[in-house]
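Hi, here's the filled form for the chain we discussed.

Project: internal
Contact: R.S.
Residues: 283
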Amino acid sequence: MQLTRHQTRQGARWAMDGAFLPPSLTLSALLELRRDAMLQLLTMLPPGTCTCMRCKCEPANDEWLAPIDPLQEVWAAGVTYLRSRDARRVESTVANVYDRVYDAARPELFLKAAGWRVVGTGVPIRIRADSRWNVPEPELVIVINRHREIVGYCAGNDVSSRDIEGENPLYLPQAKIYNGSCALGHGILLCESHEISNVPIRLQVERGSETIFEGGTTTAAMKRTLSDLAEYLTLELDFPHGVFLMTGTGIVPGDEFTLQLNDIVTIQVGPLTIRNRVSSSRG
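And the returned structure, exactly as it came back:
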């Protein structure tokens, strides 16, 4: 099952496998349920419960909305892949701190975005005007309900300013959290947590008519398990409407690479894709 969010003439609406859900059945409402109860509810809904022909809520355009409600938060985990650790060593003035995070029992976790700040596929992402070294970070993003259960995943882009973080690790919030720095899409694939253990992730960056970077990895290369990350995030923190957790990147372009205006970034996580143009405008 795949959940997607769309703009309609009546406002934002959720759909399952292409059919609109009842207006009251938001992602927040679904994530308040236990996983089995949520799946049972979705399975019991008759096909085409709320189709656009019956309720006249056909999408106003082809733009997909980010698959998140405004009430949810997006958090992120850092240095969960060896490639990420090595890249942080190069950029940082205190490189050993990333070795310590990579090897520690406790993961690095930080708030990335409030739900209303997240952009979806087709909407511009941004690079900071006060940064000279900016990169996309393609990540599998797990979706966790209020009961600390992983219910599925989506694709994510944790856009980051490497020079700002590298100057001082305490600048991490400024390197990671700003307008247009978090993209999710294009939907949420509901699945068992064990089905996320070896999901392929790919990144492509186009500049003009040329592909200037391509890379790939798989979640099997992660140092930490997804359940471990979810457990630490929810250990002493409640998320009554559920939460999204970016699980780190294993694809980092070379040190000479930086995003430029109008680059096109495409990220594939399993069957899910997000595609965004790079902008500097705050909209």
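Let me know if anything looks off before we file it.
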